Each structure stands twice: as C-alpha cells, then as structure tokens.
Structure of Branched-chain amino acid transporter AzlC:
Amino acid sequence: MLSPSVRSTFLRGLRASLPFTAMIVPFGALFGIVARAHGLSILEAMAFSIVVIAGASQFAALQLMQEGAPLLIVILTATAVNLRMAMYSVAMAPHLGRAPLWQRALVAYVLIDQSYLLGAAAFERERGWSLAEKLGYYFGSVVLLCGLWYLATWVGAAFGALLPQGLAIDFIVPVTFLAMISPMLLTRAQMAAALVSIGLSLALWWMPYSSGLLVAALCAMATGAAVETWEGRNA
C-alpha cells in the first residue's frame, strides 16, 4: 500500500510523462512496422521491444541485421548507441542507489531517455524527497511510457501492413531524439560532443555496417571529456 506522499509523487511523475506519449506511440509503431518489413514475426518484434526497450539501438541493430552484419558488429553498435544509459545510471545512483536490489534492477530496466530526463530534473528541484518518494516519481514517470511502447510496437507489427505504400513516417525517429536531446545540451562539453558526433556520423557514412557510428560515438565522448577537463583546469 502506497503512502499518500509516495502516491502523490507517483501521480506527479505520471502527469509529467504525458507530453512524451505523443512521441512514444508513433516511434514504437514505426519500430513494429520496420521490424515486420525486415522479416521479423510479431512475437520477435515484441520480444525485441520488451527485452531491449531502447528505440535507437533497436533500429540500429535491425538495420545491421538486415545488411547481414556480423553479430559482433551488431552488438557493438547497439552498445555504442546506448552508452548514454551508463551515464544516466551514474547520475541516478546518488538518488536511487540505496533502494533494495529488486527495485534497483527495475529502475535499471526502465531507465530510458524520458525517465532520466524527468527524474533528474525533479530530483534537482525537490531535494527534500525521501527515497520512497523519489522512487514513486521515477516509476510514475515511466509506467505509461513503457506500456505504450509495448502496445505501439504490437500495433505497428500487427497492422502496419495496412498503411498505404510509400507513406513517409520514418522522420519520426530523428524528430523524437532532437526534441528530447536539444534541451539537454546546456554545457560546452555537451555541445562539443554533439557537434563531433553529428559531423563524424555524416562524414563516415561510407564505412561498412554503419561502423562509422562507433567511431563517431567514441570521438564524441572523448571530445566531451576533453572539454570538461579543459574547463576544469581553467575555472
């Protein structure tokens, strides 16, 4: 039974997540459509979304699988796309790291861009919240989004073939990430990393199996770290 304060933070998190549903639904449906177009069954598409629950890496892995890339390249690329989750985890640890193991495991499973963005902002504002209240807000911010991600994947996989041929809906993917990431680019290090990532991703498009993405990701992280180090020394 949830205490009134935890119930209150849970509902606050749920309300805060509502604007993101406008992106999650078409994004998940698009993955279901693309997965079926690439030969996956409905069950396989659903398993992909439930186990991985990370849209960008799912699309990247699916494309490489379609190109016949070696399994190691698929795994490395998907991991590179999701490296930001490691940074999210580090940021969440001071707030949620004292929770029991099973709760931390669940926190890690539903750690997505939106839950990190909402949680980090709320925990910075509400410094007096207890661990239980923080957990309530965090799970409230993600429960609807995860449910809609699964449902949208199923809808896309099951009914995507009914859409008119040639309907351009793949623009949803870059628009979704631009809308989420742009407000988070606040420091010079973040901006420098983003610019390097974009520039190298475009410049290295010719590399086989989209491996240019791996190079771009590593160079972007190195750039961000170098800029932060430089700023720290000159502060």
About this structure: The chain is about 75% helix and 0% strand. The radius of gyration is 19 Å. The chain has a mean pLDDT of 87. The first helix runs from residue 4 to 17.
